[in-house]
Recover the amino acids of this structure.
């Protein structure tokens, strides 16, 4: 799949860089550097900072979705937790402001302020415990809305 990304912003960034370079360039001094050295430095800088329209779009999407650096430091992680609702095994990554559920097919981000109630209930089999989270804003999986998340734990794990 290919997307067309217009170069409008890329052109504006290049124009701004050119204006900044013109301001930075003082009058040439005699005997400071040879013209070949200056050209080589400019080429090296250009290779490091090559910007494309796709990179700009990617940065905007990451910034708008609060991903990457904005997520903060992970406090704790619980790998491969068996969950009853939604069904499957999910990794539970806890950050300062939210919990991230990472499964095979779906990823969810749940803000702590969206958790309404928590329950720890024994299951009828006597082996497992169910930890249920009630959500103010339900998770959406296709057309199904999950107002509750049910995690399953063993009572005594060795």
């Amino acid at each position: 799949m290919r997307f067309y990304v217009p170069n409008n912003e890329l052109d504006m960034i290049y124009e701004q860089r050119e204006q900044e370079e013109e301001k930075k360039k003082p009058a040439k001094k005699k005997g400071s550097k040879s013209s070949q050295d200056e050209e080589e430095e400019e080429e090296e800088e250009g290779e490091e900072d090559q910007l494309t329209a796709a990179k700009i779009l990617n940065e905007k999407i990451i910034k708008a979705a609060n991903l990457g650096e904005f997520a903060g430091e992970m406090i704790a992680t619980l790998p491969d937790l068996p969950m009853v609702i939604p069904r499957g095994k999910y990794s539970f990554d806890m950050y300062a402001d939210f919990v991230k559920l990472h499964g095979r097919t779906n990823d969810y981000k749940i803000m702590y302020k969206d958790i309404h109630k928590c329950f720890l209930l024994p299951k009828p089999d006597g082996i497992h415990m169910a930890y249920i989270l009630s959500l103010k804003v339900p998770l959406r999986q296709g057309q199904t809305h999950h107002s509750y998340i049910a995690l399953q734990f063993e009572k005594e794990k060795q």
